[in-house]
Design a protein that fits this description.
17% strand, alpha+beta, 4 domains, 19 strands, 17 helices, 36% helix, 4-stranded antiparallel β-sheet
Length: 504
């Protein structure tokens, strides 16, 4: 099967690197030659490009992202770890040059397993089965849903800073691209049943969206104040005591709170126990466990939305309706355009609704939020205010300079809001049904009596769907005697739009 450019096509974009942009995930590029990849690096040198690895029903090469500080990793030891999960398979290696990071020397490596295709969440399950999630050099957050990886040879990340390029060590670009797989690769989702019970551990690991819900810059004092809201019963019970202590360590690591202050916070929490506090035993527990905790465990979400919600419902109610929390939710569907000034709202159907700012104020004037202030006595109080007035005056709201309509593969700049929404049919899950497809193709071959014509027309419509901004510059005309199947062809025009997606 050929596409519009005469290149071979595979189901679900197999045999292509799935390129996207970190700040505009609607932009999709599918690369299958080194020259095209080089061109993408050149055309998108000013934006952080990456590859999709966590899409729904997507399979990838097994990949492992590894960072080490001050002391580099033992490469052969890592390869041995990976071979335990994927015995006999080739392992490809890419790395960045060492660089300074927060006063330390940072070493970054990435490893890929060849001739295998697997869902990214199953990679994580295999790592847990083999205990690699307890090794702090392995980053297990790269297997979360909708995750991306910065591609080889790129230098720009989403922090806006340039980093040393990720260079293949013993392989080529396509070996070091997780989204690039072939149909003949061994399907590890089928071979290995990794959906069984998780390995035994001292405490259940909870993977969560580990974000603080407050803009307070002093995270140590914020954490200390939240611990003051915890009930003594949570410190009395060993199970809840250890969960919150792991939570405290994770948050301290995430927020760069020093080890000494972390000790103080754990003792602060432990002291509220009415019966069980023992300073020496607490110190012993911290010494044994401080370096074992992974940041993918309990964190801000657990502390705020489980512990505080249960132990101080009144505070949680005020906090959950705070301006900052409402702002995060509001900006998932609303953004400000600077020139000309307006608000764009994305409705539940994904359609963009453009409103002048005065009309947006009227639409959202019913929204109320709590703002934390100090009264004359110096006490913290929560005042109820109109959310939309605060949001419009906020200098840090989500905003773009202008809005554009740029279907793929047009380049969308960081300062542009793209109102293009993908075609609905592309959101339909692919269901393999070779019998239906083969019968349809056989019918079309009989109708046109030329397989090349069938392939060309399918590729013609595939290009219209995959690259909606690119005009084919071809007009297809069907002619013939009366009764020779032109009505059938009109039906074919509709069906081929769907078939071209299934085959590409």
């Amino acid at each position: 099967m050929l596409n519009y450019n005469g290149e071979k096509m595979y189901p679900e974009k197999i045999n292509h690197i799935h390129i996207t942009i970190i700040n505009n995930r609607s932009c999709k590029l599918y690369i299958n030659t080194p020259s095209k990849y080089t061109k993408v690096l050149k055309d998108y040198k000013d934006v952080p490009i990456c590859e999709d690895v966590g899409l729904e029903n997507q399979q990838v090469k097994p990949y492992f992202d590894i960072d080490a500080y001050d002391n580099d990793i033992d490469i052969e030891s890592v390869k041995n770890d990976i071979h335990k999960m994927f015995p006999g398979k080739p392992i490809y290696h890419a790395m960045r040059e060492p660089r300074e990071y927060n006063g330390k020397t940072k070493y970054s490596h990435r490893f890929y397993v060849g001739n295998v295709r697997i869902s990214n969440y199953n990679i994580k399950k295999l790592m847990i089965e083999h205990g690699l999630n307890n090794n702090k050099i392995y980053d297990t957050s790269v297997y979360d849903k909708n995750r991306v990886l910065f591609t080889p040879l790129t230098t720009l990340k989403n922090d806006g800073n340039k980093h040393p390029p990720l260079k293949p060590v013993d392989c080529d670009i396509f070996d070091c691209s997780a989204s690039y797989i072939l149909e003949e690769y061994e399907d590890w989702d089928i071979k290995f049943q990794v959906d069984g019970p998780p390995p035994k551990a001292n405490i259940k690991q909870v993977i969560e969206e580990d974000n603080d819900d407050d803009e307070t810059p002093d995270k140590y004092n914020r954490l200390s104040n939240l611990i003051k809201l915890v009930k003594p019963e949570r410190s009395d019970c060993f199970d809840s005591w250890i969960k919150l202590n792991w939570c405290i360590i994770n948050i301290c690591n995430k927020e760069n709170i020093s080890r000494r202050k972390c000790y103080d916070l754990i003792h602060q929490f432990s002291k509220i126990s009415k019966t069980n506090y023992d300073e020496n035993k607490v110190d012993d527990w911290i010494d044994k466990n401080y370096d074992k905790i992974r940041e993918t465990g309990y964190g801000w979400t657990y502390l705020l939305h489980t512990v505080i919600k249960e132990d101080d419902p009144k505070y949680y109610e005020n906090f959950s309706q705070s301006y900052f929390n409402m702002k995060k939710e509001f900006e998932k569907t609303n953004t400000k355009i600077l020139y000309p000034p307006m608000i764009i709202h994305k409705d539940r159907d994904g359609e963009n609704i453009i409103q002048p700012i005065p009309l947006c104020e009227k639409t959202n004037r019913h929204l109320k939020c709590y703002v934390k202030e100090e009264n004359k006595k110096g006490e913290t109080v929560y005042k109820n205010k109109k959310f939309i007035e605060l949001w419009l005056d906020d200098p840090r709201i989500r905003k773009y300079e202008k809005y554009v309509f740029k279907p793929s593969p047009l380049k969308v700049e960081d300062y542009e809001y793209n109102t293009w929404t993908d075609l609905e049919i592309t959101k339909t899950p692919y269901i393999q049904n070779d019998d239906v497809i083969n019968r349809f193709l056989e019918y079309m071959k009989n109708l046109f009596n030329d397989e090349r014509v069938v392939n060309y027309i399918l590729a013609y419509f595939a290009n219209r769907i995959q690259n909606p901004a690119v005009r084919n510059k071809v007009c297809i005309i069907l002619y013939g005697e009366e009764g020779d199947g032109k009505i059938d062809y009109l039906i074919y025009l509709k069906i081929s739009l769907v078939i071209s997606i299934l085959l590409n």
